[in-house]
Amino acid sequence: MVQIAYILLCHKDPDAIVAQARRLTAAGDCLSIHFDARASAADFTKIRSELADNSNVTFAARRLKCGWGEWSLVAASLEAIRAATAAFPRATHFYMLSGDCMPVKSAEYAHAFLEAEDVDYIESVDYFDGGWIKTGFVEERLIYRHYFNERQRKWLFYRSFELQKWLGLKRKVPQDLQMMIGSQWWCLRRRTIEAVLDFADKRRDVMRFFATTWIPDETFFQTIVRHLIPRQEIRSRTLTFLMFSDYGMPVNFYNDHHDLLLAQDALFARKISPEATELKTRLGKLYSARGKQFQISNEGRNLFHYLTGRGREGRRFSPRFWEEGGGLERDKELLLVVCKKWHIAKRLIAEMRGQTGLQAVEYLFAEQDAGLPELGGIETSIYKRMRHRRVLVSMLFGYHDTSKLALCLDPSMFDIISDFAGDRATVRILDIRCQFSDAYLVGHAERVGLAGAGGNAETLAELIDTLRRDFAQETDRIRDAGFQHHHVIAQDATREQNALSLAAFLSIPKETALKIAACETLFDD
Prior knowledge:
The protein is an alpha/beta fold. The chain has helices spanning 14-25, 41-50, 72-87, 107-116, 140-143, 154-167, 190-202, 204-211, 220-228, 258-262, 277-286, 300-310, 342-356, 382-387, 389-400, 414-421, 438-447, 457-480, 495-506, 510-517, and strands at 4-10, 30-35, 57-59, 93-98, 102-103, 120-121, 125-126, 180-181, 187-189, 234-235, 240-241, 268-269, 333-338, 359-361, 404-409, 426-433, 486-490.
């Protein structure tokens, strides 16, 4: 008799995790949870408290800090798997889930499906010849050691790679392994899981190898399972239905995708949109349903494009292509000019354009009239620009046919600065430090509606001090964040000092940077 032990990796939304646990265990299945150590301790306490009386729920013995592309994701999976094998001796299958997954079949159907054939379900294709990796690193993921998170410590990640490449520090793949790759959402039999755990305990050389590969959650289980299990006992596919946009971002599913999802030859789907409350409710009830029949058509991808082309319930228009996700390409350079005095940043941008031909956009996330071209509607409001900022900037690179683009940002927009700084493109920040006279601060207060003309002198004095402190804190926050490629020019610095920063920021000769820094009116109010 089939009993599924779900392996759930999650890092947010404790209420949804508790609901998922109750839903899956109500049908007699089990759940082993690894809750990211980077996440809120209070959220973890809430999850444990809510599920304390559920004997079909267990937790990983150790909580690890997980990062995209890191070994930590595999290590966290192994922690949860070990907890599940110990806590649920009757579990016959182990199914990897994320917090974004929901069932698209009943437990009754899932159990019958898994019982019908004694096999493992894991997408596992040849690493080099399977065509699974479309762009970017292929062999480099394996033959070089990757110690740093590519998204959080981009500069160190690529400097380490370039240094190893320059020194010729290549390594060999373990000779007895055929490297495989595929989706991380698998379903494995108990004996397969036990064989993988035994292999992990005995082959420390292989564990050390995978611990410094890049994105090992797409290769570790896929390779080890194929190494240990006869080919005829493996179905190279995932039982979790997911799709990706043209930008490589996961596609979200909405209320009108219910029938589409149930018709797929899959047991779960990811990702369900946070807005799809009706879909969540219907899928939430589905897992415990009895006697439910499913007509499998498996035409999800074609149907998806048809549905999104004709519009959705609750939306006035069908989604634009820029709503499906996106990001910046690795070969792009994004230059962020950060300045509280917007006229100074605009003046500097004009000098940069004149001396270097740089393509630049001024305060596009703060000013409605930012001089943007027509980009299919995304440019029409600040709200749309903010919501889809990476796609917008990617489109601007394409529109201007350039690999280097500058944007002006207010230092109060720390979240946007931080978001872009974590992108895979090269992102440089120019922090313009201005001096703020009392007269300027009074004028600023009047412009933003904090003070009226001819206000009380005592109140204005207090407001001036508050604004000065706030401006200083915004600058300090950017400085203390430790962003890579962070450069500073200052009103009280010499032209030579500012030119050095400009040369590094723009990757231009010092002589050209001196011409930009020589602008007599640059810091004038």
